[in-house]
Amino acid sequence: MYKKIVLATVTSVFLLLSAVVSADPxxxxxxxxxxxxxxxxxxxxxxxRWLKWARATGGSDEITSSYVSTVVGDTGGFMWVDxxxxxxxxxxxxxxxxxxxxxxxxxxxxxxNRMYRGETTIPAK
Length: 125
Prior knowledge:
It is built from 4 helices and 4 strands; from the N terminus they run H-E-H-E-E-H-H-E. The chain is of the alpha+beta class. It has a 4-stranded antiparallel beta sheet with strand order 2-3-1-4.
C-alpha cells in the first residue's frame, strides 16, 4: 500500500512538471542480471509483450525498449533502456497496473533504476 501511495505522489509531481518539459524525451534505465537458468530470449519475450502493452497504455508508438548488454568489460549484467517521448507518456504507464513485474521477476533481478531526461541538440546552421 505504501509503495502505491509513494508511486501515485511521485507520478503526480512528474505529471505537473510535464507541462514544463513535455517536449523532452525521458529514458528509464534498469540495471539487471538474469537469474540462473534463464535466458536473454526469455526476458526479451516478456519485454516484447510489455512494450505492446506500454504503447497501447501510453498512447504512443514512440515508446521503445532495448536490452542493452556489455560488449567490453564486466559482462555479468544487462540494462533495460526504455524511452518515452515525454514524461507525461511515462506517467500514464507508471499510473497503470501491469502484470509484467511478476514475469520479469521470474527471469531477472534488477538492482536499481534511474530516469534521465534528454535534450535534443539542434544542428548548427
